[in-house]
Write a structure and sequence with these properties.
15 strands; about 15% strand; binds 6-O-phosphono-beta-D-galactopyranose; beta-glucosidase activity; Beta-glucosidase; Glyco_hydro_1
């Protein structure tokens, strides 16, 4: 029997824009997702846009009851900036009321709300003035954070600022998956830097508001494994780690941007514009804990014909097909549970053994309805196997002394996922879009219930 530490957090993660629905109602203003869907619905899988998510705005009481049924003791979701402050300044009372009732319902049912502030949902009013490219976004975000802490700080004790900051940077400014779909490394780096400073200023507000709780961030660490021990491949691995993991982990935990990253950007004439006192602000505002999202590793090798100065990250490292790779056949992502052990050890040895938790792990499955069994339940044994293998590795890491305090799956109820719409399903509960958003537990939900009951398996 594998037992996890006492008070271990068992739960799931989601976000406001992917679950709430009512995206253009109840006083909420538009985000880039609402606008993009209006402008180019064909980009979205099956023409499914942000209005048609899992309707949590109306169904959160039922959701919380379902969370309790499978024994969850915690749930991470986010607040929608555009709902709370539709014009960036004035408070939407309806939003305050909605979130307070939602969080209180969780608490009354023994579920700790862990609340995140930004999950890829840039308000349109801010995008119109340049979004994260404009330094003003840092102050705008800090103000939003302050308001959120003031309004909900009595109910929420674990806060995070951003979910996967490298994703909105890469997807919005390098690879075209998020609005504004710009392809420009220099601009991406500036966006990344402002995101870091927005995080730092939100942490400062957290202390100024004096919230009784802890502040963290959620990072998608992408452990890189190099093709060989050749110096060039190892160099590629080091840069991949720098950009995808250390670019945020180092400043938020250790209080400084890695020297190697500064040198790399300088060499490539890519240093962002910074303000004089930023360095001190980064030192002064480190986090209390970190959430790590882990889905798959990155296999890297040195690029064959890199540009210098670099134009894209592929000038620094290239992916390669690891011959021993195991793949999730329903989503195409690599399955490599040992990386979770490696992450646990990295957190222990390189980040002062700061408290951390797995804030997302999960297995996306396309056309999951094909696995409905005779009883009408989705028999997702593959997801149970996936969780089991990852939890075994996580447990090894904890036994080795890593300070991990919880495990959250992505996600609780199947949810809408950006341009992918409902292509990949991840939930413990199936969502039936043709039947009033009906929720039905999957086999993995029942398995999770046993884990939460036994604090292990
Ligand atoms: C994570 C994001 C989530 C969600 C998930 C699944 O990186 O934090 O918001 O989208 O990935 O992604 P997908 O639906 O593309 O498989």
């Amino acid at each position: 029997m594998i037992k996890f530490p006492n008070d271990f957090l068992w739960g799931a993660a989601a976000s406001a824009p992917q679950t709430e629905g009512h995206s253009s109602r109840n006083g909420k203003s538009a985000t880039t997702w609402d606008k993009w869907f209006e402008l180019a619905p064909e980009k979205f899988n099956d023409n499914q846009g942000p209005e048609n998510t899992s309707n949590t705005y109306e169904m959160f009481v039922e959701d919380v009851v379902n969370m309790r049924k499978i024994g969850m003791n915690s749930y991470r979701t986010s607040i929608s900036w555009a709902r709370l402050l539709p014009d960036g300044q004035n408070l939407n009372d309806e939003a305050v009321n909605f979130y307070r009732t939602y969080f209180q319902t969780m608490i009354d049912n023994g579920i700790e709300p862990i609340i995140n502030l930004f999950h890829f949902d840039m308000p349109w009013w801010l995008m119109e003035k340049g979004g994260w490219e404009n330094r003003e976004s840092v102050d705008d975000f800090a103000y939003y954070a302050q308001v959120a802490f003031e309004q909900f700080g009595d109910l929420v004790h674990r806060w995070t600022t951003f979910n996967e900051p490298t994703v909105h940077i890469e997807c919005g400014y390098l690879y075209g998956y998020h609005y504004p779909a710009v392809v420009d490394l220099r601009r991406a780096i500036q966006v990344g830097y402002h995101t870091l400073m927005a995080h730092v200023m939100a942490v400062q507000k957290f202390h100024q508001v004096n919230v009784d709780g802890q502040i963290g961030i959620i990072l998608n660490v992408l452990p890189a494994y190099s093709r060989s021990d050749d110096a060039k491949d190892l160099g590629a691995k080091a840069i991949s780690d720098l950009l995808s993991s250390r670019s945020f982990l180092d400043p938020v935990v250790l209080g400084h941007v890695p020297n190697e990253l500064v040198k790399l950007l300088k060499r490539n004439e890519l240093l962002p514009e910074i303000n004089d006192n930023d360095k001190q602000l980064i030192i002064d505002n480190t986090v209390d804990f970190v959430g790590i999202n882990y889905y798959q590793p990155r296999r890297v090798q040195a690029p064959k014909n890199p540009n210098f100065p670099a134009k894209m990250p592929s000038d620094w490292f290239e992916s390669y097909d690891w011959p021993d790779k195991r793949v999730n056949p329903y989503r195409g992502w690599e399955i490599y549970p040992p990386a979770l052990y490696d992450i646990a050890i990295m957190m222990r040895d390189e980040y002062g053994n700061i408290p951390w938790y797995v804030s997302e792990n999960g297995m996306g499955v396309a056309d999951e309805e094909r696995f409905i069994d005779d009883t009408g339940m989705i028999n997702d044994q593959y997801r149970i196997d996936f969780m089991k293998e990852h939890l075994e590795q996580l447990h090894r890491g904890i036994e080795a002394g890593s300070n991990c305090f919880g495990y959250h799956m992505w996600t609780f109820v199947d949810c809408w996922s950006w341009l992918n719409g409902y292509r990949n399903r991840y939930g413990f509960y199936r969502l039936d879009l043709n039947n009033n958003y009906k929720r039905t537990v999957k086999k993995s939900g029942l398995w999770f219930q046993q884990i939460t009951q036994n604090n292990g398996f």
